[in-house]
């Protein structure tokens, strides 16, 4: 079946630094990738949708200059949290979908970001 | 706007007992409905989905869900719960937007299984 690999699984960074999270589709071409944020004991909130080779579409309220999304290839998307602050600490999850998959989403295992 | 409601934040059942997790949705068109399971610190695994056709959908791990349009519900059921089913369960509705289709999730139900 379709597999999405997300790295790192955990990262701790200092306030003011930037952190990059990678999301790779291992056995299919991901034409669309989604990035979610999940606060403790809460649901997943969609941050942005990216199509390969295009600029990401951000949800209302998400700062695009803070959460940089790159989807330069059909197997890799990255989320960079720039100038991270403690309030950015959260669980980030990516999801990928191939061309013609309709609603065939495959989720990564998530990244726990802690900003100290 | 579309929304998904999972009324139960926590549910505790005994191993071997039956389970029903509730999900109600609000969406103007015919919904695409999903149930996902999340173990602690992990991503989401698809249990089952409903697009059209038979309103009773079978999924993995012995789960099933029934779509009831009149009640705007898509409740998840399992006849006999196993201790390994303890996890967080999310109901989601797929919607079509100008930017393509995407998922809106409910707030989740935490399932605890007592041995």
Return residue spans of chain A where pLDDT drops below 50 for at least 5 consecutive residues: none
Mean of pLDDT of chain B: 92
Helix content estimate of chain B: under 10%
What is the radius of gyration of chain A computed over CA atoms, rounded to a whole number of angstroms?
13 Å
Assembly state:
heterodimer
Helix/strand order of chain B, N-terminal first? EEEEEEEEEEEE
Protein structure class of chain A: mainly beta
Task: Report on this structure.
The complex is a heterodimer of chains A (116) and B (115). With 116 residues, chain A is mostly beta strands. In chain A, 0% of the residues lie in helices and 54% in strands. Chain A has strands at residues 4-7, 10-13, 19-25, 30-38, 44-51, 57-58, 67-73, 76-81, 90-98, 106-107, 111-115. In chain A, the strands form 2 sheets. In chain A, strands 2, 4, 5, 6, 9, 10 and 11 form a 7-stranded mixed beta sheet that branches. Helices cover 0% and strands 57% of the residues of chain B.
How would you briefly describe this protein structure?
With 116 residues, chain A is an all-beta fold. Chain A contains no helices and eleven strands.
Give short descriptive properties of this protein:
heterodimer; A: 116 residues; mainly beta; four-stranded antiparallel sheet; 11 strands; globular; B: 115 residues; six-stranded mixed sheet; 57% strand
Secondary-structure map with pairings?
The complex is a heterodimer of chains A (116) and B (115).
Chain A: E1 4-7, E2 10-13, E3 19-25, E4 30-38, E5 44-51, E6 57-58, E7 67-73, E8 76-81, E9 90-98, E10 106-107, E11 111-115
Parallel strand pairs in A: 2-11
Antiparallel strand pairs in A: 1-3, 3-8, 4-5, 4-9, 5-6, 7-8, 9-10, 9-11
Chain B: E1 3-5, E2 10-14, E3 19-21, E4 24-26, E5 32-38, E6 44-50, E7 56-58, E8 64-68, E9 73-78, E10 87-97, E11 100-105, E12 109-114
Parallel strand pairs in B: 2-12
Antiparallel strand pairs in B: 1-4, 3-9, 5-6, 5-10, 7-8, 8-9, 10-11, 10-12
């Amino acid at each position: 079946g379709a597999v999405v690999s997300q790295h790192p699984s955990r990262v701790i960074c200092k306030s003011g630094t930037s952190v990059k999270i990678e999301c790779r589709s291992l056995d299919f071409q991901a034409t669309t990738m989604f990035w979610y944020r999940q606060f403790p004991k809460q649901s997943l909130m969609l941050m942005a949708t990216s199509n390969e080779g295009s600029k990401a579409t951000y949800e209302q309220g998400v700062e695009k200059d803070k959460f940089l999304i790159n989807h330069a290839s059909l197997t890799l998307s990255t989320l960079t949290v720039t100038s991270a602050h403690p309030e950015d600490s959260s669980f980030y999850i990516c999801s990928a979908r191939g061309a013609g998959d309709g609603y065939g989403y495959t989720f990564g295992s998530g990244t726990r970001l802690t900003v100290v | 706007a579309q929304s998904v409601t999972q009324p139960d934040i926590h549910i505790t059942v005994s191993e071997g007992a039956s389970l029903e997790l509730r999900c109600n949705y609000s969406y103007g068109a015919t919904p695409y409905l999903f149930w996902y399971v999340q173990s602690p610190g992990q991503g989401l695994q698809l249990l089952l989905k409903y697009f059209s056709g038979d309103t009773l959908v079978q999924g993995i791990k012995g789960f099933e869900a029934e779509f009831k349009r009149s009640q705007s519900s898509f409740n998840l059921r399992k006849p006999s719960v196993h201790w390994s089913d303890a996890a967080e369960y999310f109901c989601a509705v797929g919607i079509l937007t100008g930017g393509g289709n995407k998922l809106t999730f409910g707030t989740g139900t935490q399932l605890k299984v007592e041995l």
